[in-house]
Amino acid sequence: QWGIILDCGSSGTRARVFSWPEKGWSITEADVELEIEPGISSFANNPEALTAYLAPLLDQARLAVPDPSTTKVRAFGTAGMRLLSEMEQVPIWSAVEAAITASGFEFAAAHTIAGGYEGLFNWLTNKYVLQTTLGKDVFLGCLDYGGASFQVTFAPASGVIQDFGYRLRVDSSQERVYSYSYMRSGQDQAMLRYAKALASRSQESPILDSPCHNQGFNSSMNVAGAGERTLRGTGDYSKCKELTQALLNQQNECLLEPCAAQGVYQPPPTGVKFWARGALFFTANGLGLVDWGDAQALSTNQISAKGAEFCAKPWADVASKYSQSYCFSSAYIVAMLNAYAFPPSDETAVVYSRK
């Protein structure tokens, strides 16, 4: 049997193709990479355009399966869609369903999933893939730094979860898993919050000096509540770390200890092996800490050192579509992982991997 999952993220949509026997759970993912930009949430004002947007992705997916008419397609929206109201979401999902049906596939589902479940699905995938190499007794965790949210999901070594806990059956065993999604904490949304913070300090100035961008960087953006502003890079990593730390709202009261960012309860990650995905990997890769096809365990001290080195370079020496986020994200990742209670010098707890 064959099935396709459309992972509808805030910055793009990815198609994942799976096959499995009629009896049993030996799932295989096809070795194809299908992705289009931007995310479907950007079509809130023009859902009719989704058919043309999805067509190239679905056309490529058709080539990866033996019979599209018997292949079920499920589309799941994540944080980008969660930012929209229900009224804005309905026409988008209707258009997605119509596009899937028109493409000749068997439509199965199209809806937005909660952040906690987004983390759980990521954790289950990693559990399934990694347990053969790590063994079933390893306590596994996942960190997913997306465009609009940041998920933290893991099975605590202590087994104690006082909030945001889920009970799962994996193979023949019961698992207790903690999963929390920090909204507006993904790379794109965190950058917007950062720019808003800069604007609040700069009164009516049309130019915002940005320590989280390389010197020589200039880019205009619409800042919430402040209108059109220009970010001008100063490449000050020390100041960048201060400002990204402020985005975590660590001053929020912790009502159920221990807490991580924003006063949110989180059990200690001690003794858990974490896999870092999304912009965590892309940043580490951009900084030269891990190759595209590899997986590498890194400490936050290593991320910080390479981030400082990158931020000090002139923009002309590093300019590219994606490198404009590396200075900011390197500091923000360090702040987040420190808040999650990862020891800064631990070079084994977090593995950065694209897949």
Automatic annotation (TrEMBL):
One GO CC term on file: membrane
Chain coiled-coil ranges: none
Statement: the UniProt record of this protein carries the keyword Hydrolase: yes
Entry keyword annotation includes Acyltransferase: no
Residue positions of the active site: 118
Pfam family, one: GDA1_CD39
Any one of the GO BP annotations: nucleoside diphosphate catabolic process
Positions contributing to ATP binding: 147-151
Keywords carried by this UniProt record: ATP-binding, Hydrolase, Nucleotide-binding
GO molecular function, one term: GDP phosphatase activity
Gene3D superfamilies: 3.30.420.40, Exopolyphosphatase. Domain 2
InterPro entries linked to this entry: GDA1_CD39_NTPase (IPR000407)
Annotated family: Belongs to the GDA1/CD39 NTPase family.
Protein name: Apyrase
